């Protein structure tokens, strides 16, 4: 009894709503079943789509997504909604609940919402031949896989994919109404950090375990504006490197001044490197171009500090003239001893060869003994040669070499860096 009463109340309520409609709309809606798609049993229904990009609010490298506000328009033909006349009917958006609409959804959407101020931003328009225009205003956050290897000289290609949730290709077919011109608004769009270089549309199919579904894809390519990063990161890092070279023109006896410049530039560069990573993912599996450049600058700054440490060490241990002569004499004496030991070894070898027939056992022992002495002497001789190559006769010339080598190498590395990341 209660179930029958409830059904009668629903039927009376629906009849009341339909009677409140104008005669033309009441005639169209009468006997209409919104749970059945158009051309049910006679092939798929074709749904044309077009987009207007109102704005792209944020593009996040940390979350790898973008947030956009779009106007989505869908067109299809429903033979059950044909009526006599030559004018279209614009209906209230709330009447959408009484009609069949495609179950379109955004594939990579993280969160979306339909605008409802002051009313739900939906439009429904019916034409005499049964064509239905359905438009909605959506703000959606869509995932975009980004390759930040060349950041901030990178280009990102993002997509907006539209699919049917429940109707497969046997029930619904999607198509762009005007090809690439189906998407508008990007030509006049102004982004804070990017420039829209190119965009195009494509039609494909999504294959899942439950079947094949229609799919429309909108591709757009974003190029990052590097001018902001040049002023914010690259120019300060270059100036810090140049500032570290000032210590090469300061006397080596001015220890506080040179240490202060070296330590200050190292700490400032460390702070700059930390600030450059605040807007980037904390954990990623690729090295970015800005990380490479900041690492190069940090290496040059740290190298300038080490250069003074080496120069100051050589200055403190620089021998006076007498000590230098004494050291040379001692070195020559050691080398002479090495030569004499080699001659003695040769003579002993000759004696051992003459007495080989009488005392072969004792000769073998002598040769092994002297050969054991000769090998350490040869090693010492080679070490003296190596030390002579790295010996700095005048430690004050180290700064002169650094004044030329540091700027030249930094310029060469910069040329390779910018050519590689801009053209390859």
UniProtKB/TrEMBL annotation:
<keyword id="KW-0407">Ion channel</keyword>
<dbReference type="GO" id="GO:0034707">
    <property type="term" value="C:chloride channel complex"/>
</dbReference>
<dbReference type="InterPro" id="IPR038050">
    <property type="entry name" value="Neuro_actylchol_rec"/>
</dbReference>
<feature type="transmembrane region" description="Helical">
    <location>
        <begin position="404"/>
        <end position="423"/>
    </location>
</feature>
<protein>
    <recommendedName>
        <fullName>Gamma-aminobutyric acid receptor subunit pi</fullName>
    </recommendedName>
</protein>
<dbReference type="GO" id="GO:0097060">
    <property type="term" value="C:synaptic membrane"/>
</dbReference>
<dbReference type="InterPro" id="IPR036734">
    <property type="entry name" value="Neur_chan_lig-bd_sf"/>
</dbReference>
<dbReference type="GO" id="GO:0022851">
    <property type="term" value="F:GABA-gated chloride ion channel activity"/>
</dbReference>
<dbReference type="InterPro" id="IPR018000">
    <property type="entry name" value="Neurotransmitter_ion_chnl_CS"/>
</dbReference>
<keyword id="KW-0732">Signal</keyword>
<keyword id="KW-0675">Receptor</keyword>
<keyword id="KW-0869">Chloride channel</keyword>
<keyword id="KW-0770">Synapse</keyword>
<feature type="domain" description="Neurotransmitter-gated ion-channel ligand-binding">
    <location>
        <begin position="25"/>
        <end position="225"/>
    </location>
</feature>
<keyword id="KW-1133">Transmembrane helix</keyword>
<keyword id="KW-0868">Chloride</keyword>
<dbReference type="InterPro" id="IPR006202">
    <property type="entry name" value="Neur_chan_lig-bd"/>
</dbReference>
<dbReference type="Pfam" id="PF02932">
    <property type="entry name" value="Neur_chan_memb"/>
</dbReference>
<comment type="function">
    <text>Pi subunit of the heteropentameric ligand-gated chloride channel gated by gamma-aminobutyric acid (GABA). GABA-gated chloride channels, also named GABA(A) receptors (GABAAR), consist of five subunits arranged around a central pore and contain GABA active binding site(s) located at the alpha and beta subunit interfaces. When activated by GABA, GABAARs selectively allow the flow of chloride anions across the cell membrane down their electrochemical gradient. Pi-containing GABAARs are mostly located in peripheral tissues.</text>
</comment>
<comment type="subunit">
    <text>Heteropentamer, formed by a combination of alpha (GABRA1-6), beta (GABRB1-3), gamma (GABRG1-3), delta (GABRD), epsilon (GABRE), rho (GABRR1-3), pi (GABRP) and theta (GABRQ) chains, each subunit exhibiting distinct physiological and pharmacological properties.</text>
</comment>
<dbReference type="GO" id="GO:0004890">
    <property type="term" value="F:GABA-A receptor activity"/>
</dbReference>
<keyword id="KW-0406">Ion transport</keyword>
<keyword id="KW-0812">Transmembrane</keyword>
<dbReference type="InterPro" id="IPR036719">
    <property type="entry name" value="Neuro-gated_channel_TM_sf"/>
</dbReference>
<keyword id="KW-1015">Disulfide bond</keyword>
<keyword id="KW-0813">Transport</keyword>
<feature type="domain" description="Neurotransmitter-gated ion-channel transmembrane">
    <location>
        <begin position="233"/>
        <end position="371"/>
    </location>
</feature>
<keyword id="KW-1003">Cell membrane</keyword>
<keyword id="KW-0472">Membrane</keyword>
<feature type="transmembrane region" description="Helical">
    <location>
        <begin position="256"/>
        <end position="280"/>
    </location>
</feature>
<dbReference type="InterPro" id="IPR006029">
    <property type="entry name" value="Neurotrans-gated_channel_TM"/>
</dbReference>
<keyword id="KW-0325">Glycoprotein</keyword>
<dbReference type="InterPro" id="IPR006028">
    <property type="entry name" value="GABAA/Glycine_rcpt"/>
</dbReference>
<feature type="transmembrane region" description="Helical">
    <location>
        <begin position="292"/>
        <end position="311"/>
    </location>
</feature>
<comment type="similarity">
    <text>Belongs to the ligand-gated ion channel (TC 1.A.9) family. Gamma-aminobutyric acid receptor (TC 1.A.9.5) subfamily. GABRP sub-subfamily.</text>
</comment>
<feature type="transmembrane region" description="Helical">
    <location>
        <begin position="226"/>
        <end position="250"/>
    </location>
</feature>
<dbReference type="Pfam" id="PF02931">
    <property type="entry name" value="Neur_chan_LBD"/>
</dbReference>
<dbReference type="InterPro" id="IPR006201">
    <property type="entry name" value="Neur_channel"/>
</dbReference>
<dbReference type="GO" id="GO:0016324">
    <property type="term" value="C:apical plasma membrane"/>
</dbReference>
């Amino acid at each position: 009894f209660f179930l029958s009463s409830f059904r009668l109340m629903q039927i009376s309520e629906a009849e009341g709503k339909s009677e409140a409609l104008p005669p033309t709309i009441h005639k169209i809606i009468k006997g209409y079943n919104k749970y059945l798609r158009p051309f049910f049993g006679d092939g798929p229904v074709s749904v044309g789509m077009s987009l207007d990009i109102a704005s792209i609010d944020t593009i996040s490298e940390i979350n790898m997504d973008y947030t956009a506000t779009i106007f989505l328009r869908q067109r299809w033909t429903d033979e059950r909604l044909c009526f006599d006349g030559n004018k279209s009917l614009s209906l209230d958006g709330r009447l959408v609940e009484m009609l069949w609409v495609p179950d379109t959804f955004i594939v990579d959407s993280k969160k979306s919402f339909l605008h409802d101020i002051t009313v739900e931003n939906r439009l429904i328009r019916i034409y005499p031949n049964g064509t239905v225009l359905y438009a909605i205003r959506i703000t959606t956050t869509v995932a975009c896989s980004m390759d930040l290897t060349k950041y901030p000289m990178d280009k990102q290609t993002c997509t907006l994919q539209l699919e049917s949730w429940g109707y497969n290709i046997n029930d619904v077919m999607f198509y762009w109404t005007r090809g690439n011109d189906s998407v508008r608004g990007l030509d006049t769009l102004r982004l804070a950090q990017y420039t829209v270089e190119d965009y195009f549309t494509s039609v494909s199919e999504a294959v899942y375990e439950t079947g094949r579904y229609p799919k429309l894809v909108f591709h757009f390519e974003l190029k990052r504006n590097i001018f902001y990063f040049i002023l914010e990161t690259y120019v300060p890092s270059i100036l810090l490197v140049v500032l570290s070279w000032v210590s090469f023109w300061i006397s080596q006896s001015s220890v506080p001044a040179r240490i202060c410049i070296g330590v200050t530039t190292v700490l400032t560069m460390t702070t700059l490197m930390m600030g450059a990573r605040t807007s980037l993912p904390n954990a990623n599996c690729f090295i970015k171009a800005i990380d490479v450049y900041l690492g190069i600058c940090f290496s040059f700054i740290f190298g300038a500090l080490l250069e003074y440490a080496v120069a100051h060490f050589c200055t403190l241990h620089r021998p006076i003239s007498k000590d230098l002569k004494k050291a040379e004499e001692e070195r020559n004496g050691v080398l002479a001893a090495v030569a004499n030991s080699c001659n003695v070894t040769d003579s002993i070898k000759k004696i051992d060869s003459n007495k080989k027939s009488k005392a072969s056992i004792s000769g073998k022992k002598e040769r092994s003994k002297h050969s054991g002495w000769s090998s350490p002497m040869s090693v010492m001789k080679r070490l003296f040669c190596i030390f002579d190559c790295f010996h700095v006769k005048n430690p004050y010339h180290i700064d002169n070499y650094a004044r030329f080598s540091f700027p030249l190498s930094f310029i060469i590395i910069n040329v390779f860096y910018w050519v590689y990341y801009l053209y390859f």
